Amino acid sequence: MKDIIDKIVSEIVDELKLEIGDKLESIMLFGSYTQGKISLERPNVNMLIITKENVSGDEYLKIGRIFYKVAENYKNYFSIKIDSLPFRFGFSENSNKTELVLSPNISSITEKNQIPAFGIPHNVLDGIKKSRKVAFGSDSLSEIDTKYTKEQLIQWALFDVGLLFRNQLIRAPLSYDIDKNLNQFVNESLQIGKMALFWGAEIFIDEAGFKSGKYMELINNKEKMIEFYQNIDRGLVDAAKIILEARQHFQEYKTNREKAFELYNAAYVAVTKVFLKILSEMKK
């Protein structure tokens, strides 16, 4: 399975270079895939595509066609879904196969010097930078200082958790016919719930833990994450257990209505409680 995933990624990179190489600043891979920790229960490949200046809509259309063209070539191996998180959730056509999630995010080199760089919160960008592997072009993140304060984190979290994730989750039951698209519903609930837990790890941790970066231990270790939330809030730790279990047993959750609804409610609890903490922090 890993060899097939490597071929898919390589083919996407080669097609991007061939079709719009003159418009690309860089292509970077990051996350569990580059660290050799990719899940075979629900494999996920994260990619950051940075374009040069003056890119037209035609290039974005080409990028989309390339991803779906390559996905079609490997439909006998995986049900390939393309999620451009956190803004868009893609559609999976076959819930009976192992689902490979490709998560490309696109930015422009013109956004490099804005705050935060590339419009990506620096806590997220720091994770990308630490696990990145340049697949094409320049290393656009090498000179970026990803240090940030708790105050900046709260501001970014207000948008990501409070406005983006919370509103997407509330509307998820309206976006899918659950009888036909339960797997899509489960995917969105899992992704949003997981991201809420990750943001919460930084927001709920004390000042010493924030400054030392201890929250990264929580994000990378399921048992430590659950133990951490055990001391924060009972409802939150119960939600965390369900979300992290669904992450490990995705194939089961995406075909079981009872578990799917349990996951949705857990994600809702996680997002709501983290959002309320954000609001309380803003009052200080």
Features:
284 residues, 57% helix, alpha/beta, 11 helices, 2 domains
What does this molecule look like?
This protein has 284 residues and is of the alpha/beta class. The protein folds into two domains: 2-137, Beta Polymerase, domain 2; 150-282. Helices cover 57% and strands 12% of the residues. The protein is built from eleven helices and five strands, in the order H-E-E-H-E-E-H-E-H-H-H-H-H-H-H-H. Strands 3-4-2-1-5 form a five-stranded mixed sheet, with helices on both faces. The model has no long low-confidence stretch (mean pLDDT 93).
Shape: globular
Number of domains: 2
Number of helices: 11
Per DSSP E runs of 2 or more residues, the count of β-strands stands at: 5
Instruction: Give Rg in angstroms.
Output: 19 Å
Through-space gap between termini = 50 Å
Secondary structural class: alpha/beta
Secondary-structure element series:
HEEHEEHEHHHHHHHH
Largest sheet, spatial ordering of strands = 3-4-2-1-5
